[in-house]
Amino acid sequence: MAVRSDTTDPWIRVFHSSPEAELRLVCLPHAGGAASYYFPVSAALKPSVEVLAVQYPGRQERRSEPLFADVAEAADRIADELKGWTDRPLALFGHSLGATIGFEVALRLERAGVGPRVLFASGRRAPARTRNDGIHSLPDSGLIAEMKRMGGTDAAVMDDPDILAMALPAIRSDYRAAETYAYRDGDMLSCPVYALVGDGDARASLEDVKAWGEHTTGSFDFRVFPGGHFYLNGSTEVIALVRDHLAALSG
């Protein structure tokens, strides 16, 4: 298998190259999110862990590229790209939509014989509990109101009508992918799953997040943090948990 080590891949951003790292953490953004969301994570985990931040099409420097149609399409493309980064073990961290995509990517990597060491599933209902709340069908005003309610979107985006107008197509497409995702009965991971959630998350109840344990034959762990859907913003506790867990895997 040819191994990619460059940073020209449109799907992957490496903010801090760490040649001595024994493991890579693939970080998948939320709906409307970009790879840059994980810059602080990359900075905090270097040099022991090298972060590969996924950049979805339709945002930032990929703004002119076609959006992915659904979770399956995104997972197909991301898994294919990651097969070129398997000279070191991979772990996956996905928040919200990124957790669902991470689950599907992990399935594909396991089928290819290069499964991840662990999937961190953050702020997202378990795959079999996905439901369509109709957010992607709201008018622009309703979608914007939902984004403000959930938090997590840069204030510079929310307060600039021109930037917001450019961002809305990708945001709506991401919500559509998240809400129309169809779990296939019987799909099961063998890698460990670690589910994380904020205690005030209006979109992911504790019961729905605990159900991630039903989607792996490997070990399962669960952790609740204070905060809402974006409980992880600036959280040193989350970084510490991920760092310690990955260190144990590497050790």
TrEMBL record:
SUPFAM superfamilies: alpha/beta-Hydrolases. InterPro entries: AB_hydrolase_fold (IPR029058), TEII (IPR012223), TesA-like (IPR020802), Thioesterase (IPR001031). It holds the Pfam family Thioesterase. Residues 26-246 form the Thioesterase TesA-like domain. Keywords: Hydrolase. The keyword Metal-binding does not apply. The keyword Hydrolase applies. Transmembrane segments: none annotated. GO terms for molecular function: hydrolase activity. It comes from the Bacteria. GO terms for biological process: lipid biosynthetic process. Gene3D superfamilies: alpha/beta hydrolase. PANTHER family: S-ACYL FATTY ACID SYNTHASE THIOESTERASE, MEDIUM CHAIN (PTHR11487:SF0), THIOESTERASE (PTHR11487). Belongs to the thioesterase family. This is Thioesterase. It comes from Streptomyces boncukensis.
